[in-house]
Design brief:
The chain is α+β, with helices and mostly antiparallel strands. The protein contains 6 helices and 7 strands. Helix 3 packs across helix 4 and helix 5 crosses helix 6. It comes from Enterobacter hormaechei.
């Protein structure tokens, strides 16, 4: 079993928990901004394919105490990144949070990047390149007080990007939020659904995907 974390918009955590449990997730625990849960490899694929509410699915790798930037660097170095991806793959670091020592998230991301690159060079391997726009691997670090949680982002560009829109209207609603509104509305597939303020049709599209049991 793997320990996993699904992030979502604040306020949707309980609805996401119900969705994940329906997919077979175990030991679901709601926190602000997401749900911790347990699952096997099959569940990882199912949650990535079928969750309509999760923004991202992450695989936690390590937690470490961070009282200085050196602690952050050392904690990241304790993971053998050469076992996770090869030098010809690109990566990006997404760093969230600050504390008394790491006062800037960009600086935190830089120290994490340095630790990963040095992990390769110290093993006499080529250094991998950073690609902030379209990386092969996304690494998420969340700093909460003096604890840094390091995770692999399994979602790619983000699960709210369904891929069904060529263009958008003004101020489009995010797909995950639209799906949540449809679920909360009490609407039942097979009955009429009216969106009197329809812009780019996100609510109706999400409802249609629910009605036809189509993976998002």
């Amino acid at each position: 079993m793997n320990s996993l974390f699904a992030s979502t918009a604040r306020g949707l955590e309980e609805l996401l928990k119900t969705e994940l449990e329906a997919l077979g997730a175990k030991e679901c625990r709601v926190v602000q901004g997401g749900v911790h849960f347990e699952g096997d490899t099959r569940l990882i694929y199912q949650s990535l394919m079928w969750s309509r509410l999760a923004s991202r699915i992450m695989l936690p790798m390590k937690e470490c105490k961070v009282y200085s930037d050196l602690d952050l660097y050392t904690g990241v170095q304790m993971i053998d990144w050469t076992e996770i991806f090869t030098p010809d793959a690109t990566f990006a670091v997404h760093f969230n949070g600050v504390n008394d020592e790491i006062r800037n998230s960009q600086y935190g991301a830089l120290r994490v990047k340095d630790a990963i690159v040095d992990c390769f060079t110290r093993r006499n391997k080529e250094r991998p390149n950073v690609d902030r726009e379209n990386p092969d691997l996304r690494i998420n670090v969340w700093l909460n007080g003096d604890t840094a949680s390091i995770s692999l982002d399994l979602s790619g560009a983000g699960l709210h990007l369904r891929g069904y829109r060529d263009r958008t209207g003004m101020a489009p609603i995010k797909e995950t939020l639209a799906a949540a509104i449809v679920m909360r509305s009490g609407w039942q597939p097979g009955t009429p659904l009216l969106d009197p303020m329809c812009g780019s049709g996100t609510l109706l599209i999400e409802a249609a995907m629910l009605a036809t049991d189509r993976a998002p």
